[in-house]
Design a protein that fits this description.
626 residues; Rossmann fold; 5 domains; 6-stranded mixed β-sheet
């Protein structure tokens, strides 16, 4: 389906009757319209009218200045609608008009024009010039017949009973202009009488309205992306197979402006007797995950995946080291009531990013490993060896499959408990500032605005964070889009944002415009006093929904003599110290237990004594050397 480009003029009624909430909602909705257009190809301008009309902004591809003039509109005067139409039409026939783009007017008014005939005449002239005219009638004082005459067709007239309806209408019009596959979408899902809806179990935006057993979603537009909504139900306890829905109907307006309808087959739930055998393997998406689908946020904080520098089995994550073999561990749990056989665990790795696309960002896989058998109620840890292809932080994805419990929603971590993702990294400010490149990604197949949120718990006084755009073009596009920034400030002459919190670290870089599938690097730098142990989160959001993120957490406090970080001094630690002493393993002064500045055979001997004595590090000192 070909995407349509447009030059669109917004005509906003700023007469006295628009005072207050009406104008506030109109401004917000108009800015939403601007954000829905692709200003690498489209243009947007603004005209307004009261007693007279004004060209507030010429046709432009700079969203920031367009949004600024919208914010500056004030109400007062009459309703000179015809002047507003004429002013906007003149702009669409000026030299600034892109001849390859469709010409569009979007008129908003809440009352009767000073001259109805003059308004229809002005609209007729615009339509004769090849301009498509949309009309929005706000409130009860408009003349619907007049507004339909102003519009290019009756279907191009949109009544808005309340000003709160405007945002959805402007989104629908933006979708219609751009030739999106569906606008004005209504999803009506009627639950089967045997199902009981779990209150407040919805995911996805917008949330539905609920009336009895009927759930209704109103979606202004859907472009070339996949949207997922979910909810939970309780099924009867009586064994049997039950439909979840009596019906699921979708009505919408297609890309040609025609009404369309489709239906979706509903899933079924099988309730089995208590003695029925159920195979259910899973990995945790976050520490609180119990295997329920969908999992809660953040779903990219899996404790079931961790990396180690040695195959020592210790369940503490270490940042991978470049230039050596690392070991990526996965913990698989069986929460079913039957043994699951022939399990395959696939492990994938990727450079740290705030969002990922499946499968292209995760190929090729690091490797796979099998679990021959996993009894009910048991867990197994497995690992694959891996050599990082470069320096920096990495994220991991695991996919666990078996014939008895296959993957059903590949790539959708939140909606399949056989898939887990870990975007968690160790940040040790005791060794100096953190510098971590993060790849900012638009995973959608259409342009969109991305928000990047950085927040922290336990951030130290005197600490600071900086986010630097590696691509000056993206930084400039963000500035042109308005440069929305909360909680930080731009460092003059650079492409960096500085965050210096007074009490907490919380900042948002908002409305970063990214094209379909675009990737760009942003470097996070965190500084803090020695001994500070903050946890820093970086989250990417699109249209209010989390699409991914990264967590930077402090290392586990080191214990002298504990080389593998398991909290004990063991024979493994003693062997590591001995290897360091003879030069076959890189030296770690945490194993220099006598604190003489080097790891020697004496340190290995002392650690071995502690291991034999029960494993508590720092026990009785070694006897003097004879």
């Amino acid at each position: 389906m070909a995407r349509k480009n447009a030059d669109a003029m917004l005509i906003i009624d700023r007469s006295g009757s628009m005072q207050g909430q009406k104008l506030a909602d109109a401004k917000a909705a108009a800015k939403t319209f601007v954000d829905k257009m692709d200003l690498t190809r489209d243009q947007v301008g603004v005209a307004s009218f009261g007693d007279d009309a004004k060209l507030d902004h010429q046709l432009s591809r700079t969203a920031g200045t367009v949004r600024t003039v919208i914010d500056a509109l004030t109400a007062g005067g009459g309703t000179n609608m015809s002047a507003g139409i004429n002013t906007a039409s003149q702009e669409l026939t000026s030299v600034r008009r892109d001849p390859n783009n469709a010409a569009v007017l979007i008129l908003l008014s809440d009352g009767l024009p000073d001259s109805g005939s003059a308004a229809t005449d002005a609209a007729r002239t615009a339509k004769q010039a090849g301009i498509r005219v949309f009309a929005i009638g706000l409130g009860a004082d408009v003349d619907p017949a007049l507004m339909k005459d102003v519009a290019s067709s009756h279907s191009d007239y949109y009544p808005a009973p309340q000003s709160s309806d405007l945002a959805a209408i402007y989104q629908q019009i933006a979708g219609a202009i751009r030739g999106q596959p569906g606008t004005n979408i209504t999803i009506t899902d009627v639950l089967d009488p045997n199902m009981t809806l779990v209150p407040n179990s919805f995911t996805g935006s917008p949330a539905p309205t609920v009336s009895g057993n009927t759930l209704t979603w109103h979606v202004p537009s859907l472009g070339f992306e996949t949207k997922t909504w979910s909810f939970r139900v309780k099924a009867p306890q009586t064994p049997g197979t039950y439909p979840v829905n009596s019906s699921t109907e979708i009505t919408y307006t297609d890309s040609n402006g025609n009404p369309a309808t489709t239906s979706c087959p509903g899933p079924q739930i099988t309730v089995v007797p208590g003695a029925e055998k159920i195979a259910e393997i899973y990995c945790r998406d976050n520490p609180a995950d119990d295997g329920s689908v969908p999992s809660s946020e953040p779903w990219w904080e899996s404790p079931a995946i961790w990396a180690r520098h040695q195959p020592d089995g210790v369940e503490q994550h270490q940042n991978p080291k470049f230039g050596q073999t690392n070991y990526v561990y996965v913990r698989v749990r069986n929460i079913g009531n039957v043994t699951v056989n022939n399990i395959t665990v696939h492990v994938h790795g990727a450079k740290a990013a705030s969002a990922f696309r499946w499968p292209q960002d995760w190929v090729p896989e690091i490797g796979s490993v099998g679990i021959p058998s996993l009894p009910s109620g048991q867990a197994a840890n497995v690992y694959v060896p891996w050599q990082p292809p470069g320096t920096g932080h990495y994220c991991f994805l695991t996919r666990i499959e078996a014939v008895q419990d296959p993957i059903t929603h590949d790539g959708w971590v939140k909606f399949d408990n056989n898939i887990c993702q870990r975007n968690v990294h160790v940040m040790d400010l005791g060794r100096g500032p953190l510098d971590s490149p993060i790849i900012l990604v638009n995973p959608q197949r259409q342009p969109t605005y991305v928000n990047l949120v950085i927040d922290s718990t336990g951030f130290p006084a005197g600490g600071a964070a900086t986010l630097e755009f590696a691509d000056p073009d993206l930084f400039q596009r963000w500035q042109d889009a308005g440069g929305d920034l909360e909680g930080g400030e731009i460092i003059p002459g650079t492409t960096s944002v500085s965050i210096r919190p007074s009490s907490e670290l919380l900042a948002t870089i908002a409305r970063i415009p990214m094209s379909a599938g675009e990737q760009s690097e942003i470097t996070l730098r965190v500084e803090g006093p020695l001994g500070s142990r903050p946890i820093v989160r970086v989250t990417e959001m699109i249209e209010g929904e989390e699409v991914g993120g990264n967590i930077y957490q402090p290392p586990v406090a080191a214990i002298l003599g504990d080389g593998n970080g398991d909290g004990l001094c063991s024979e493994v630690d003693a062997l590591m110290a001995l290897q360091m002493a003879v030069g076959t393993l890189a030296e770690d002064l945490n194993l220099d237990v006598d604190q003489d500045g080097k790891v020697t055979e004496l340190d290995a001997l002392q650690i071995l004594r502690w291991a034999v004595a029960g494993g508590q590090c720092g026990g009785a000192p070694a006897p003097p050397t004879p």
